[in-house]
Amino acid sequence: MTNFLQFIKSTIQDIPYINSQFMIKLIESIILLILFWLIKILIFKIINKNITEVKTQYHWRKLINSVVLILVIILVFRIWFTGAQSLVTYLGLLSAGIAIALKDVFTNLAGWLYIISRRPFNVGDRVQLGDYAGDVIDQSFFEFTLLEIGNWVHADQSTGRLIHIPNGKIFSQDLANYDKGFKYLWNEIEVVVTFESDWQKAKKILLDIANNKGENISKRMENQIKKAAKKYMIYYKKLTPIVYTSVVGHGIKLTIRHLCETRKRRNYDEAIWEDILLEFAKNKNIELAYPTTRFYQNKDS
Q1: What CATH number did the domain enclosing 125 receive?
Q2: Cα separation, 75 vs 78, whole angstroms
Q3: DSSP character for 131?
Q4: Domain region containing 235
């Protein structure tokens, strides 16, 4: 790299009317930026031509961007600070400047290093950080981007908004990962029937529906639990659907609890509710409850 920079410098010095050291360094820097930009474009074309998988293309592009940025920073510092020849000096000057003048930027860079080293999440994972939840669709030095879920949209479906979160938030906000370790979540559906209904029959109907429509316990799910248990204290004694009974002010509440895939919660809700409505319609002694008010009038008073 030193010989390359010397070649650029000697070439510029041969250009007439350029005698100022400032102009020489400025032109060197511009040439360096253009050269690396062209190299990056060429590499991107090679990647796009030879790699068809979108996710693999993304990871290679992010890697090339990171390498090019680091090389440009080092070489530009070498041009402007001729007395600082060691890499340690360049990085020391850069770190000191960022720490003093750009505290937030430094924190975000530290967050990026934490994310790529500890891997609390990867691109494609569904996470919640503080008040924001969504699918991670991009990572960079200073921020990561979520395709938002929830908010005014129910059942963890996408809102269509992109949320850019500074990497430094990883140190100050609670992080939840929907996909890390165990890739299923427990879903609950509450059904309230009237006190006059045959709640025992309703409970049996709900359990049958949950077993038919809910996520069936497969070898894949069991293997995931065993794999996750090696790293995390995850232990489930019962994986099959269950229906719990409780009483609320306007009826008997039957709560279906079952496992489902992270991104299919709404699909399961719809399928289960449609079956509930159809089955309850066949039974005249089962009625869905809702809050009501009754008035009694004493004619003798």
Answers
A1: 2.30.30.60
A2: 5
A3: T
A4: 184-281
